[in-house]
Write a structure and sequence with these properties.
With 229 residues, this protein is of the alpha/beta class. The chain has one domain: 3-Layer(aba) Sandwich (Rossmann fold). The protein has helices spanning 44-55, 66-69, 78-95, 108-119, 169-179, 205-228, and strands at 3-11, 15-23, 29-34, 58-63, 101-106, 125-131, 156-161, 183-188. The two termini are 33 Å apart.
């Protein structure tokens, strides 16, 4: 069973936030996992992903963005979010010096990670994984939020539900196709932005979670093979 350590993460010119390191028994990678806009690092989705990845040999470092640590509902400005992600990546590198690093997150956290990577590569990060990329606002389909992804040079994994109101799947597919071989899309039929499915889908939420965790592990396998070649 995975063990979790509570930590403190210092962010330059911002302050200190809480962090959690969930360690795999036999780790093969470390995932820097940023939370979504509406819930912090202890949200049940974050907990489930961290535990499930530990079972698959991936240690996970979660952390709160400063606004969440302060109890605010208003997400940080991109510059502050990027600084928090860079601090978390640096801490993951220190805590797991011999492990390859993957970064990304749930919704807002994933988008802030790719923005940071596009501005200046995150040291040591070999890939970015999105658990529900927020392509647009609810009811306002557009693809402008994907423009910066062209500046991301590392492999990317998009885990996306077909009922996600923050990402029209056809628009997302088109945006990902433009990225070429560096981007992979794993579509979860019937899942919403939280990867929840309707009963009529014939599958449970637990099965959906296993699906996206297995997809992450398979993608990681491919990254490791590519690195070895």
């Amino acid at each position: 069973m995975a063990g979790t350590r509570e930590l403190k993460l210092g962010i330059e010119r911002v302050g200190t936030v809480s962090a959690l390191l969930t360690e795999a028994a036999k780790p093969r990678a470390c995932f820097v996992f940023a939370h979504g806009a509406g819930a912090g690092m202890r949200h049940s989705f974050m907990e489930q992903v961290a535990a499930g990845l530990a079972d698959r040999g991936v240690t996970t470092l979660r952390f709160n963005f400063p606004y969440m640590e302060q109890g605010s509902r208003r997400p940080d400005a991109p510059g502050i979010a990027h600084a928090a992600i860079r601090a978390a990546v640096a801490e993951a590198s220190r805590l797991c010096p011999n492990l390859p690093l993957i970064a990304g997150g749930k919704s807002f956290g994933g988008r802030m990670t790719s923005q940071a990577q596009a501005k200046a590569p995150l040291p040591g990060v070999r890939g970015i994984a999105f658990f529900g990329f927020p392509l647009h606002l609810d009811g306002k389909p557009s693809a402008e939020r994907a423009d910066h992804l062209a500046g991301v040079e590392v492999p990317m994994l998009f885990l996306q539900g077909t009922r996600d109101k923050l990402a029209d799947i056809s628009l997302l597919k088109t945006a990902i196709e433009r990225l070429g071989a560096k981007a992979m899309l794993h579509v979860v039929e019937g899942a919403d932005h939280s990867f929840l499915v309707l009963k009529k889908s014939g599958r449970s939420n637990a099965e959906t979670m296993e699906d996206i965790l297995d997809a992450f592990a398979t993608w990681l396998d491919r990254l490791e093979i590519a690195q070895a070649e």
